[in-house]
Amino acid sequence: MPHPQVLRDMALFVEVAKRKSFSQAAAALGMPISSLSRRITLFESAVGLRLLDRTTRKLVLTSYGEAYLNQATRLVEEAQRTFDDMVSQAKGPSGFLKIAVPPDFWVLRHLSGVISEFSRDHEHVQIHVDLRPAPVDLASDSYDLAIAIEEPRETSLIVRKVGELENGLFASRSYLLAHGRPQHPKELSQHRFVLPSQGASANWSLTRGSETVAVTVGGPVSCNSLSLARRFVVSGQGITSANLINVERDLVTGKLERVLPEWRLPPTPVYIVTTSRLLPAKARSFIDFATKRLNAILTTAARGMPIPESSDIDPSRDYSTAPVFALRS
Questions:
Q1: Phi/psi of residue 244, nearest 5 degrees
Q2: Are residues 10 and 75 in contact, defined by beta-carbon separation less than 8 angstroms?
Q3: Model pTM greater than 0.70?
């Protein structure tokens, strides 16, 4: 039978190796750096191999450490999941759940309701939500999961596609009255655009049925915030591309109008991202819960229908039949 300290030291090694920092790992674990460093040194002595190379500026894994990390991570995660499952059977999912989400309007309006409903149903789970633009370092910042609107570049992350946000072109009535309403994508080059990404111009592809038109658009204003781009456009600065769900209220109140409504921009996928498939009960429960709710919200928005509040969503109903929506496990 292994000594009880072996698994603990293995977990400490995994935490340090994933963060590549003793100070960050110690802060996450709530223990002194000196104690953590001593335990890792004793662990290396017990193993008989140097797993980490330490310098004053950085910490790197040795070849032995790289090989051992994958095995150790799997064992530690399986042990943690077994423990969480036992706890959840006794009193339901519990613990601290840290989530990163993008600072977009639809997140603030709709995902907040989903999280609130989950919190009411899972009283032993404490939730912390960080508004963080991509990319997010899940491991270094101790996130259990992230909601993302672009697929992470790191191939080691586990990505679950939840749905898609329909995109379109939008402008204020004052701008359209002053500059004219485009009748075809080829006319867009004659208009001012507020670009929701850095640069003076952008290349977009619009489709209508089997027809596709590539256009180059530009304007004097760009920003890295969809919410700020919306404000510029509401004030009459030009046309912008936006998620339909982000401007639904503006369309209802008349602050914005859809430009070339029969033409479609590529949709924006929505993902739930984790560092592992072996998740604690608190994360698994939230992912299952949020996937059903977001399924309903995004599908309803794609159909141009009023979006129900999260409390009005029927979790037994299949909302995934909209043609623009896809799920994968």
A1: -55, -40
A2: yes
A3: no
Calculate helix-pair angle for 33-47, 4-19, nearest 10 degrees.
Answer: 110
Select from 121, 166, 114, 116 the least CA-distant residue to 272: 114
Same domain, 49 and 185: no
Cβ contact 290:327 at 8 Å: no
Using the predicted structure, report yes or no on whether residue 127 has a pLDDT greater than 90: yes
Residue type, position 115, single letter: I
* Euclidean distance between CA atoms 13 and 72, whole angstroms: 8
pLDDT per residue as tens digits for the range 23-74: 888 887 888 888 898 898 888 888 888 888 887 677 888 888 888 888 888 8
* Cα(79)–Cα(85) distance, integer angstroms: 10
Please say whether the beta carbons of 151 and 271 come within 8 A. yes
Task: Determine how β-strand 158-171 pairs with β-strand 192-195.
Answer: unpaired
The DSSP 8-state label assigned to residue 185 in this structure reads: G
Structural domain harbouring 190: 166-267
Average pLDDT in the chain = 83
296 in the same domain as 257: no
Local structure of residue 187 (DSSP, 8 states): G
Q: Is residue 322 part of a domain?
A: no
47 with 189, same domain: the answer is: no
Which residue matches tokens 């894994």?
61
- Our count of domains for the chain comes to 3
Residue 307: which pLDDT band, with cuts at 50, 70 and 90? low
Residue 203: exposure state from Cβ atoms within 10 A (0-12, 13-18, ≥19): exposed
Mode of pairing for the β-strands spanning 59-61 and 52-54: antiparallel
Query: Does residue 325 fall inside a structural domain?
Result: no
With beta carbons less than 8 A apart as the criterion, state whether 218 and 204 touch: no
- Tell me the angle at which helices 112-121 and 281-302 cross, rounded to the nearest 10 degrees: 140
Domain with residue 98: its CATH number is 3.40.190.10
The residue from 70, 90, 110 where one domain ends is: 90
Answer whether residue 329 is part of any domain.
no
Q: 51: closest CA among 71, 79, 23?
A: 71
